[in-house]
Amino acid sequence: MSTKRMGNNAQNPFYDTPEKPPHIHEKTAGVPLRFQQQDFSQILRGTLPERALFTKGTGAYGTFTVTNDITKYTSANIFSSVGKICRIFARFSDFKSEKGSADTNRDSRGFALKFYTEDGIWDLVGSNSPVFFIKEPAKFPEFVKTQQRSPVTNLKSATNMWNFCCAHPETLHQLLMYFSGRGTPKGFRHMHGYGSHTYSMINAENERVWVKYHIKTQQGIKNLVPTQAAQLKSTHPDFAQEDFINALQNEDFPKWTLYIQVMTEEQAKEFRWNPFDVTKVWFYDEFPLIEVGEIELNEIPGDYQLNIEEAAFSPANFVEGLGLSPDPVLQARIATYAEAQQYRLGRHANLLEVNRCPFSAEKVKSEKNSQKARHFSKFENEDSYPESAYSENEDDHFTQPGLFYTKALQDYDRVELVRNIIEAMNEISGPQRAEIINRQICHFFRANIELGMKIAMGLQINIDANMMNHAGS
Ligand code: HEM
Question: Which family does the record claim for this protein (predicted)?
């Protein structure tokens, strides 16, 4: 077989790349090689490693416009005057998704916002739920494993998930939201977003308040009923992405209103739950929503890989006038995102286009450093928030889920919630089935007797006197 090398590229009819490796021959098995190597490289190496969580998603650029003066709470320049506009980027995602999974599956949705402020990047990395499954970060790895495929069988396991939940009753509040209609939103445009954690704001006088962020959809909440979700799963597995992109292409730009709830340091000491517990909400009648501004998403990024896949959000990105809180889950998140992003995107993740702040790097750097110093020095000298201060109601995992069932849901929602839970718990299998079901039913009873009773009946479980003694306690 001839191994004659072609001369330089000018003579080469098949290659025009100067990087042509010397060992590539003009002909292989008599077939001329008609390709450019870089075309292949794009396919072979063009896909980034996936996010470990919230893998499947979509996003867009847009604007945030201040509509209400909150300068008494924060000195952050982004909120300095009504009418001020800041460019933003948003990414929506499904929590336990895989690239090919259907985005009408029951799941938590990620709601991540990046604000390109004149003081640097502020990321609000939230979800479509005001609460989270756990309140101790040490439980996070075990929790995530219950959402992923088994390392043994490579199958998803309802048993693993319920096994975790029944052993950790603090999951109950999020579980009820997850199995309500909110677990299957009708696309990303029709759901609210939440910062979920307690954050802080610091004003020009260096006074601090605790805040929770709420991002309310102006399109109205719409959820899919299970039959619709199942139908769309087979016909439109990318339903949420399609719905979002179609709306932007039709210039039907989705909007949300950003609100905060504010709790003073004094109120925090009086609050009957730990104000930094991410499994709890603050009730609106005690801590009313305060309007802040309007979010509009109106620009589909030109390149999905460069913008949506390369986006690196982190709760560690915040600016002068905004801050964190002693919530241990939030504190754990501060460190973990950078590690994930260095692995996924490389050491220069923050310099990638979508993650870079367009404002002067020097200004951002010096102000961010001084802001961080102020923020953390406040906590270092802090002895007014010892963990023990909140231990009294630390084990109350039931009052708020009970109120969610009775007050937040309508009759129809309650029926759907019970049906969804029964269906999901019927998938528990194996020798621990009875124990897992009994323990979990006990949690439902403790939140609300009617809820526990309906689920028990649906699972054909006989309720014994012992269980009833716990209920409502
Ligand atoms: C200890 C608790 C948590 C840990 C260790 C953790 C860690 C992570 C990591 C490593 C990523 C992937 C980051 C990347 O590759 O860019 C991620 C993504 C994400 N997390 Fe968390 N997380 C925690 C809790 C939460 C909570 C409570 C929320 C919601 C309130 C949340 C919302 C998100 C969202 C929305 C994303 C996807 C961001 C995007 O669109 O790129 N996480 N998380």
Answer: Belongs to the catalase family.
